[in-house]
Amino acid sequence: MALKIVKGSIDRMFDKNLQDLVRGIRNHKEDEAKYISTCIDEIKQELKQDNIAVNANAVCKLTYLQMLGYDVSWAAFNIVEVMSSSKFTYKRIGYLAASQCFHEGTDVIMLTTNQIRKDLSSPNQYDTGVALTGLSCFVTPDLARDLANDIMTLMSHTKPYIRKKAVLIMYKVFLKYPESLRPAFPRLKEKLEDPDPGVQSAAVNVICELARRNPKNYLSLAPLFFKLMTSSTNNWVLIKIIKLFGALTPLEPRLGKKLIEPLTNLIHSTSAMSLLYECVNTVIAVLISLSSGMPNHSASIQLCVQKLRILIEDSDQNLKYLGLLAMSKILKTHPKSVQSHKDLILQCLDDKDESIRLRALDLLYGMVSKKNLMEIVKKLMLHVDKAEGTTYRDELLTKIIDICSQSNYQYITNFEWYISILVELTRLEGTRHGHLIASQMLDVAIRVKAIRCFAVAQMATLLDNAHLLTGNTQRNGICEVLYAAAWICGEFSEHLEDPMQTLEAMLRPKVATLPGHIQAVYVQNAAKLFATVLQKHEGETDSQVAQETSQLLVERLPLFVQSANLEVQERASCILQLVKYIQKLQQKNVEVADEVTALFAGELNPVAPKAQKKVPIPEGLNLDAWINDPPSESESEDEKPKAIFAKEEPKHSRSKHTEVDEKELARRREARKQEQANNPFYIKASPSSQKGFDAPGVEHIPVVQIDLSVPLKVPGMPMSDQYVKLEEERRQKDKADKKKKEKKKKREKRGKGRKADSGPESEEDITPAHQVDIVTEEMPENALPSDDDDKDPNDPHKALDIDLDKPLADSEKLPVRTHRPEMLKSPAEDRDGEAAPQESKKKSSKDKKEKKEKDRKRSKEEKKKKKKHKEVEEEPVESQPEEAVQSEETKEVSAPPTSTSAEASDLDFWLSSAPVPHVAQEVTAPPSAAAEDTSSAAALESEPDERKDTEPEDTKSSKHKKKKQKKEKEEKDKKKKKRHHHHHHHHHHHSDVGEDSVQNGTVEEEEPLPPMSNFSLLAENAYIKMVCDIQGNHQDESKVVVSVIFENKCSSFLKSMEFNVLDSLNSKLQRPEGAGPHDSLTVPFQLPPGVSNEARFVFTVQSIVMPQKLKGTLTFIVKSDDSSTHEKLDFKLHFTCTSYLITTPCYSDAYAKLLESGDLKGSSLRLEGINMPFHHLLARICFHHHFSVVERIDSCASMYSRSIQGHHVCLLVKTADQTVSIDAKCDEPSLLGNVLDEIKETFSKC
Amino acid sequence: MIKAILIFNNHGKPRLIRFYQYFAEDMQQQIIRETFHLVSKRDDNVCNFLEGGSLIGGSDYKLIYRHYATLYFVFCVDSSESELGILDLIQVFVETLDKCFENVCELDLIFHMDKVHNILQEVVMGGMVLETNMNEIVAQVELQNRMEKSEGGLSAAPARAVSAVKNMNLPEIPRNINIGDINIKVPSLSPF
């Protein structure tokens, strides 16, 4: 055997290994491809051998070839084989190859699931590590689903090396399998406080990555991160957290306020530039989020700008770049602070580094004003001329256009200048942005009516010199400008001085070399020009010109009729026929001009880009409704699910949509006509508006002289520079004029229509050269303002927009591998499959235990949290001390209606930063309380201490403060109690006592719901009051948990409380082993005066179909200073059928299947005079009766719940004017009947 | 997130490529070419950030690179990464290579792409930064290498011997390194 191995390896040493391959390639420079193809043949041979070492070597070589661009996917199966080798050496090679060339489309991936699972649970941490690393590169949705649970277990691995990898890979798992986020999140959160810095950093990394995409779901983690930020010294972690805060602050300005101070401190103290930079960035984000409400943060802005200036002035180009980058963020909200550094930024335009120039350009965009626009653009035009490289030049071009056109041309005072800038830009060699220039020309000409005359003249010159633009064949891009030029000349031809000449220019044979869509515009606009010429000359006695024009068209158009472009061809032949006809008429001396002009009557208005989308759906129009009745079969299908519930009222048909009366139709028709009248794309019924020009009184600046001496410039083009001079002169003159005027009288109000300018300081001194009326883009009437149109529907992160604060529901578990699907088993029981080796089995069972323990802790923690929210919510109630007793009761009892609002209020509490004494020090935590518990509590509590100094900013009435303090005191007490409570749990091993208290996550958040509580009064006397809540237990089908809150109402100490219930045949109180059937249970705490605490008792029940009552007694000793008495209190514990139900979410398809199965029996209920909103009604049913909403459509909802013994209960709730009908189905009729009775009772109470 | 890590030499020859998002092989090569084109025409004294090429990512992505003697180390990252942080990370990575290869030079990367990958995997995982502490990275890499050696055991000995013989006729590799500002300097190394 050993000999064989040695022999094998001797054979092997003459195989090519990776180094040989590389060397070989280096030695075959001339025929590399040929050499590699022979190597690939060799590799194929090697892969066929039955020796894993040879295979691994081959795969290793393939990985190298993959880097050189060779497709190696054909070897995917061999890679899987090497991955599954038991030797780490080969396994690593296999996983590396897989991570380089596997992807979601690789079909062999599905073969790897078991192998990867095996590696993940390998006793060797490096096997696990290699598998995790590989998996992170090629995880697919299937793998993510199948392995999520295994990876989650690894997050609590003993080795930090594995933990950090497992934490990181969770992000990939979440992306591919979003359902795993909620079940895994609590553990991920735990890892934020992992003792190992690497694991902690990984957890921060993952959460930051998640939060960046959906920040609102992570707001509740802000306190925890805040604590990390103030305690961590790891710059990597700090940077991530600070970046995260940058994403969170826009959602919660109060958070920003809290952050400013620590961040400012960091800015002053840190020596790490990277950290400094991120701090500045986040402070900027904070300032942006505060900008509306808080004007007095100028100090912070100054600090930032000043730090950034230092960065920009640094000789390190990287810092310069980042400084500019951050500066552009400040610019958006605080332009003035940046504008003072204009010199610095203009200087950066001359930098040799393109990245820096681009950044500086970005900044310029925000720095222009009416005053300096021309100057800045002039500078940019200079750069355009000397810029080498088209990318940068194109960038400059777009920036110039952006700068000028921003906020509706706000800063342009002279549009003639702008047009000439655009015309100058057309001379750029080889730009890609001809289209952009063209659309600007069109936009300006259309929307600035006053400029049309000038624009048309310019465009005519452009057309005349088109050969310069198209110069060397079709340099794509810039000829797009001709599109605009032709259209403008045609559309506004009445301004043309010599339309005949332009027409001639547009019909030159050279035009036929232009792209089709431009030719089409040429042809169409030639027709418009033709109409204008006719109009102009027809009145004259001698019709020579008109006829000549027709002749010209008839001669030239055939060229276009032959065009290969359909559009051109069609238009040309159409117009040619028209002209021929006109020519005939002309020869008969018939006047045609008016009719020809009428062809092009009407003005084209600009339409906003989003206009189509914004057309509101008219009232009563249902886009989902059938226009014709659908084929009969689908109709019956459509009706089917409803028919499942017995008594279906026929009201629900869709006749609603068809019963629109005649009047309504007429009204709509009218509205539509109106709309069409306003829509430029509709041809109007009557030629209402003749093409009239209505921009009178424009001061006419004389067309600038042709500057023929300038080489390479289109002759006849004005130079924009001249405008700069002109403009300066004009401004000076204006100023002088104004001064004069001002002496006489106060300044007049400026003329019509110009958009209000918000430019800085002396801006208003600059009057625009033209009184322009910028036509705004048209929008449909009653367009809805909505900004949700730019979200990418394909963003994978959208699926991760999951509310993480809702408690986990029973069904939300990570899928666990089972032999056959068995839904009812708990995940711990069937964890290890047959494939797992013996040791790993042991280990996993250990893990299991750990997991269980953890779970329990977690659920407790959650519970605690919940309680805590409760307290916060109750605050207003407490402010009425005179109703002490009453309020105390509500206090304990009022549970928050939804847990999300509870979370929010928790955050509110943190953010409102009242001075809370350091609770953690005052309360001596029992040693058994879990350490993490204390620390997380401390996290919450210690915050405010540090922030006392920021306090004064919050101006709050002293009354309010008092209230707060009181509340805090209250809270302290609570905490004490909670610790107690925890303690008790540990000692009494009530391990299965209500792990998860059922919460209602299904309540909708439409309107605030009235506070609701499941706690009902059990018994009360002068000393003590007991309220209780009964919940079914998820884990055990025969157990019910009764939580009883004992409240000491007297001024004495209550101790030795003993709780006993008289068992019935059906229900028994669970007693510790060894206790007799009638022994009472000791309540595990004592009650000081005024204090309340909660204890839980477990009952076993046999049958759950009937409600029942159990008699019980509480005995206790009342101990005052001088005496102690023995007291007792009798009570009746009422087990309703509702208390056997467990809120269980159900998907609608599963629900439908359930109903169709036919195993359920129906019953129904009708409630009259219910006077509450439907969602309140649903919320009540959810809350009091442990249902969840499956689906809700308008005033109809389906609901679901499950009993602890697995009975399905389905409800269909419908409401119509104060009447609620509930149709119900359940596989146990008597249970259903009782539940319905209980529901009825709930609503009879309110 | 890091979208891709590319290492190529002054002539654009790839020495290591690591994409954290799937691209077909020809697309990968195109990206390398484009990135090389963008990066190589920049002077050494300009900033190390480049707004991403058109192929890889959109406006959210940046190329962050460092140039060491004959090699370019290019990271393509999105806006969730700190620019200066990534620059540091590249430095950490290179210093780690230097430690693991004992005075690293381009030839090490050429002949031991697999080892470079193994080191990189301890630094970045699935596009996220895994570890930034150099000692920790080196320790993990060494432990794994040791394991590999122990697995090889006796049977690997002949292969090792052959490999040593094969390496004998390699041209002596000039390795000069100055650790002060880590420069991988391989003068006169002819590209292939």
UniProtKB/TrEMBL annotation, chain A:
Its main location: cytoplasm. Residues 740-753, 974-990 have a biased composition (Basic residues). Residues 775-792 have a biased composition (Acidic residues). Residues 660-805 form the AP-3 complex subunit delta domain. It holds the Pfam family Adaptin_N. GO terms for biological process: anterograde synaptic vesicle transport; Golgi to vacuole transport; neurotransmitter receptor transport, postsynaptic endosome to lysosome; protein targeting to vacuole; synaptic vesicle budding from endosome; synaptic vesicle membrane organization. One of its GO terms (cellular component) is presynaptic endosome. Keywords: Acetylation, Coiled coil, Cytoplasm, Golgi apparatus, Membrane, Phosphoprotein, Protein transport, Repeat, Transport. Residues 894-904, 924-941 have a biased composition (Low complexity). Part of the AP-3 complex, an adaptor-related complex which is not clathrin-associated. The complex is associated with the Golgi region as well as more peripheral structures. It facilitates the budding of vesicles from the Golgi membrane and may be directly involved in trafficking to lysosomes. Involved in process of CD8+ T-cell and NK cell degranulation. In concert with the BLOC-1 complex, AP-3 is required to target cargos into vesicles assembled at cell bodies for delivery into neurites and nerve terminals. Belongs to the adaptor complexes large subunit family. This is AP-3 complex subunit delta-1.
UniProtKB/TrEMBL annotation, chain B:
GO terms for biological process: Golgi to vacuole transport; intracellular protein transport. InterPro entries: AP_complex_ssu, AP_mu_sigma_su, APS3, Clathrin_sm-chain_CS, Longin-like_dom_sf. It is a peripheral membrane protein. Signal peptide: none annotated. It comes from the Eukaryota. Keywords: Cytoplasmic vesicle, Golgi apparatus, Membrane, Protein transport, Transport. GO terms for cellular component: AP-3 adaptor complex; cytoplasmic vesicle membrane; Golgi apparatus. Belongs to the adaptor complexes small subunit family. It comes from Triplophysa rosa (Cave loach). Pfam families: Clat_adaptor_s. This is AP-3 complex subunit sigma-2.
